[in-house]
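debug: dumping io for the single-chain case to check the tokenizer round-trip. Nothing else runs in this session.
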Amino acid sequence: MRLRLSTLFIAFVCSITWVIAPTRAEEKAASKQAGVPEDIQAERDILYVPGGDPAQSLDLYLPTKPSEKPLPLVVYIHGGGWQGGSKAGCPAVGFVREGFAAASVEYRFSKKAIFPAQIQDCQAAIRWLRANSKKYNLDPDHIGVWGDSAGGHLVALLGTSGGKKAFAPVGGNEDQSDRVQAVCDWYGPADFNTVIAQAAEDKNAKTVFKWNNGDPYSALIGGGLGENKEKGDAVSPVHYVSKDNPPFLIMHGTHDTLVPFAQSEELRDALQKVGVDVMLQSFPGAGHGGPVFGSPATQKQIKTFFQKNLKGMDVKVEPLPDSATGAAAPAK
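debug: decoded output
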């Protein structure tokens, strides 16, 4: 929720009403801090591709009181079918109070540029953050990513394709790595070559899409799913899985009508096969998102995952009990 801060105040002096406007610098500062707690400072709309598209920007959240040592970073990438959404309302902001820095990345949508523009932008943002790590007191060796839906797809792709130069870089900073050290994937597509068949076989929730007729998957790649395996492989996180991938925490509702639950099962199985540390947390009866993903138990699990993999804390990421996942009372 965006909060609007007043930029005018009225003083009454000697029966004369004065309207005093703040300076431009004050207006800019108020806009950047809108909706953020006082102990967290926000730097918004930073262009990670200088002179590029306005969408190639990010918001950065840091503690108001500077940390004595560089902070591990959690980067959030929003969903919206690669066609919409906003970097505003980043759920990782709360982690700043837990000893992290947070960032929220915007990227070009498929109506403006088809794949691989989206992953190129996300990789450019990671490289920019590393290149500017000293300026913002960030730990460049400990960057985690978290995303939902289309954002889940992009963070999974960051995790599996990082460091492999699979996509031509944009935005410079090519001396910096685009690898990440931890991935939290919320119900992101994992394999564009299998999604139609998995949706057809899903007995819990049938897809709402008319495939290859304006659905966001085909709009992203600029063509019909299944018509070009090479193109399907290029956009699919499972295609890049290797033993050096970072740890994954995957979360998915079993009744998802937009991204079949089997997509996350397939990604988990591929990661497990090569020995990558991965957990798939299912939410029985849950759809594409919903309150259970924002529950205290879920958020604690995510925090523990990042504490372990970005801060090196001696903690264990445990599966959630049935009472916290909705397993006891699945949706009808």
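debug: round-trip ok. The two ends are 31 Å apart (CA to CA).
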